[in-house]
Amino acid sequence: MRRGIAALAVSVLVVSASVYAVGGGPMTGGGPEAAATAVFYNGRIYTMDVDGTVAEAVAVADGRILYVGTSDGALAAAGPGAERFDLRGLTVIPGLVDAHAHFVGYAVSRAALDLRGTGSFEEVSEMVRSEVALAHRGRWITGRGWDQNDWDRKAFPRRSDIDPVSPGNPVLLTRVCGHAAIANSKALEAAGIGRDTPDPEGGKIERDQAGEPTGILFDEAVSLVRDVVPSLTREEKKKLMISAAQDCLAAGLTGTHEMGISSETAGIYRELYEAGELPFRITAYFDGDAEDLDSVLAAGPAGSIAGGMFSLAGVKFYGDGSLGARSAAMLEDYSDDPGNRGIIVTDPEVLYERISACHRSGFQVATHAIGDRANRMVLDIYERVLAEGPGAGLRHRVEHAQILSPVDIGRFAALGVIPSMQFTHCTSDMPWVADRIGEGRLAGAYAWRSLISAGSRIPGGSDYPVESIDPLLGIYAAVTRQGLDGLPEGGWMPEQRLTIEEAVRAFTLDAAWAAGQAGDRGSIEKGKMADLTILDADLMEAEPADIPGIEIVATVIAGRIEFKAEKAPF
Ligand SMILES: [Zn+2]
After folding, report:
1. 555 vs 67, 93, 226, 251, 560, CA distance in Å?
2. I need a surface site. Which of 133, 165, 415, 418 has the fewest CB within 10 A?
3. What does pTM read for this prediction?
4. Which residues lie near ion ligand 1 (Cβ < 5 Å)?
């Protein structure tokens, strides 16, 4: 990006600008309908095109980029009534996209009170009180994330502590670990838990000296209550999705590849987009374990709905578990658990049959594989399926690709299989990865540089809500392999780090490429969708430590400003 050719490229574009201005836009072949309806000018615009062009301005018509070049050129392309946004030197990059996340999961999690970081139980009960004030009588209030170790008084609360603030609404607040919860009297009543209720198998109902339940529940006893919390209605889900989209836009995201959606969720998306209610792009991968997979395959992929806002591009499968739980499938024993090599969660022959069916039906496949054994299994299946026929020519994906046997690293590029990776998983896991797999296997752990050197392109994701939605944290993790505390010094296995440009490309062009959308998205080029992320600092020239502090000034989708910070100069 920072090459001398940039200036030259800009000057070439100046010439093109005058051509467009005189002859109208190249997309429609001239005439007033080609005039730009929005112009973003006076910016530092990293286009991410093959030449690494840095431009000053972008002009937009019909949701697509009509012109990229100088401010004068873009303003000259503006039609009557065009919106003009003076960027005053702000940095613009292609709209950021999270290539692996769970948008609905994130949206639904927001229905619960977020109790992480609370400093006292009083703070928690105040949050419950304000929620009760908004809720109709009887509606469940749920929350998660409290940790009594953070409170001034470190004792577990009791239902008598919450009942006064919520006498008419059942309340269930889950501890940060998920293995304990506090329920109020209404919630215990709804679950039929009283002094005569025995402890369920694998769970415990805490009781006071008189034998009455205190409201504190452990493990399976939490499930007794959780099972009676009504699931969200379609309308509730829609509202949560709309507000989750606002969060994502404010984080600079223009879209997400959503892994593992159900038919119900696909239906909700269609309704939201048809009503124009979700200004956020979703590229969806259907849940490969769903019972109605066959009918979805028979119907074929849904290429582009609502002007490219939504597509059903592929199918998501699971190969193994997770490294944290020691259920990722490894070729050799876990270093800290002799005799355990993890779990292949889908029988390889069954997985092959399903992947083959997707391949033949024109669906891209995205398979979760974390351990080196699972990755090899999935590569073997893809190799076999690809050898049987080209299908629709789709590149299939491995989601996570965390621990690879060195001999498998080159197979990704050789087979045209995409390693879809989440940079913050690396920085979350790095404190304990060496314990799990031993020093000897670290060479293939989160091996971004090795994969790129072998010819792969790595789309970047976060797996939110597992990690933060903030793509700048992903870019920071990719570039530093350090925690936000700047540790370890020099980065964890720093030889695998990415450059800032590579990390940005992972969340833009390579994300688009991984979903077969690079012709339409991922860079700021004439004819592509006008999705932009506008930043208050020059990300490409930033000190890595400063990246998490960069602020999103605006997020633009199809040429429209869908998020704007107060500090925006326009
Ligand atoms: Zn995931």
Report:
1. 19, 10, 37, 8, 8
2. 133
3. 0.85
4. 259, 463
